[in-house]
């Protein structure tokens, strides 16, 4: 699962071979089909769901004891930028590459990515409501944040700099300020 | 080129086979290597550069005779949402899927995507400067817009709705209002 998650995040779903995953995991080849009788698709689905939830847990940590919404948002984007620099621009969103690849080609995997994004949006909406935002504003801010983060990841990985993540932080903070009571 | 562009946009780079492109183009197999001696990689690079520039031309059209920056931004996102609905959530950014796939795996294609994004950022910075924004604000707004659009495309294609694009329009307009003199 860990090896699969890393390969999918960096190389995408179609760009990752079953052999590669097994090799990266130092596992015997047969073990993949032992644990994942549905093969690469089943592993892909489980990786999407699991890594999506791990990423959500990371978000929860940033806002767990954070009394200030603006600080929390700034910390999120600063941390994302640091991770990208540290991993040579490889480790961004765990599911975005796969989400774009499968959106029009694999309905089972598309639904897995949709379930993850839905869980993120619901969790953010609930969390941001605690800072005094209406449910509508909290949902708007959450989706705007995910939009900015996902888009900034595309630019950052392509351009190999973190300017887009800095901008995402600034624009998300600007929006939050207009929504805060 | 046209067949390759459509397949790459929808299925990604690794998910598109040379045979598929030739079939979709109703061309004899040998013609691909005749016109693209570098094969799939050369075709991929030319598709990235050409479709990236076509997308930029679309942006230029939206702002060509638009006296109002806010209207222009709203029209961009509304049009993107309409295209997604009309194409059953297949046709979003022409280069994002490929950009994520190749960012850590194919330096030649990564540079092609980076050149396209750089051209977009420069064109937007110049255009938005004409609405009275400083060069710094115009660049910030451009990158924020691309961030939001690219991220909203990921969510929209995965969730098969256009809420993320509506939010991207609202958040981009909110940022533009804080930057306008």
Quick take:
Chain A is an all-alpha fold and 181 residues long.
Stretches of chain A where pLDDT is under 50 for at least 5 consecutive residues are none
Based on the structure given, which CATH architecture of chain A is correct? Orthogonal Bundle
**Mind summarizing the main beta sheet of chain A?**
none
Q: Choose one word for the global shape of chain A.
A: elongated
Which oligomeric state applies?
Answer: homodimer
| Range of helix content of chain A | over 70%
**Overall pLDDT confidence of chain A:** 94
CATH topology of chain A: Tetracycline Repressor, domain 2
Please give the radius of gyration of chain A in angstroms.
Answer: 17 Å
Protein name (chains A, B): TetR family transcriptional regulator
Pfam families (chains A, B): TetR_C_13_2, TetR_N
Organism (chains A, B): Amycolatopsis coloradensis
GO molecular function (chains A, B): DNA binding
């Amino acid at each position: 699962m860990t090896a699969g998650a890393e390969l999918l995040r960096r190389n995408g779903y179609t760009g990752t071979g079953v052999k590669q995953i097994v090799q990266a995991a130092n596992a015997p080849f047969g073990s993949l089909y032992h644990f994942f009788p549905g093969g690469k698709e089943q592993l892909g689905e489980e990786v999407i769901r699991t890594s999506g939830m791990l990423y959500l847990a990371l978000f929860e940590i940033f806002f767990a004891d954070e009394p200030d919404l603006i600080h929390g948002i700034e910390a999120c984007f600063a941390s994302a930028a640091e991770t990208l620099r540290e991993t040579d621009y490889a480790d961004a969103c765990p599911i975005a590459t796969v989400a774009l690849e499968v959106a029009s080609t694999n309905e089972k995997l598309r639904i897995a990515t949709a379930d993850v994004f839905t869980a993120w949006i619901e969790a953010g909406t609930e969390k941001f409501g605690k800072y005094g935002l209406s449910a509508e504003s909290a949902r708007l801010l959450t989706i705007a944040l995910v939009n900015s983060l996902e888009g900034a990841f595309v630019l950052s990985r392509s351009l190999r700099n973190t300017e887009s993540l800095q901008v995402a932080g600034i624009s998300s903070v600007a929006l939050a300020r207009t929504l805060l009571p």
